[in-house]
């Protein structure tokens, strides 16, 4: 998602901790399609005003929840599932350009990346099973192709070619130059690409121009030990290179430091459930400018906010 780096208040701080009981800031009113409900919200984007933008996947729409709002408003899709220009089909991620007010959407089941600007739509990239999106400070758009096990990048505004492979692209597998179902992506200041390699139960880091990646989280088989992940989804990295992972099937968010043999539980990890200290298949992760942690608690159909305490 756009400008994914954690914001300045968190810079140069280690061992940050969050309250373990979250506040529900969007959804949480059961599975549904009313404006106060969500159905499988896959990702999150938080803007500078703490408004929350959500790919409400199974409702085939993008919803914006204003800060402290009791319900959201539909800003893209919401016209039933379909492949027409004003429709979406299982959107999974988005980037919000706060200057132009445009939204770039990973329209997963329509195999396209589509831009919405004031209810006018434009297909940017077609024939791509795009799960995750990211944009860097140099104006490059990164797209994870779940089906082809690769990440490609395009210069923003120049989508006529096939893009450049920057990670994977060597078929499905578990070698260091391969992925098996890449999902979320994050790009840091050095244009290194972090990828949640879901079916390999690991997070990979591909430095710029690298021919293979390195394992920075998980990679020790599927499991719930501190050196393991199970179906990782959302990934975000702070200024110190600490990696936060939505460890979906373990119902927890983990923090890993590159080079360490195991991670630590940040929030969740209290079993699958609906209580304020529990998660049920967390996906998207985001931070606001105060360092509060937001989690797309997918199977609970809500967005959870964990407040920073140190």
UniProtKB/TrEMBL annotation:
Pfam families the UniProt entry points to: NHL
Entry keywords, A to Z: Glycoprotein, Repeat, Signal
UniProt NHL repeat ranges: 278-309
GO cellular component terms, A-Z: extracellular region
Name of the protein described by the UniProt record: Uncharacterized protein
Lineage: Eukaryota, Metazoa, Spiralia, Gnathifera, Rotifera
UniProt superkingdom: Eukaryota
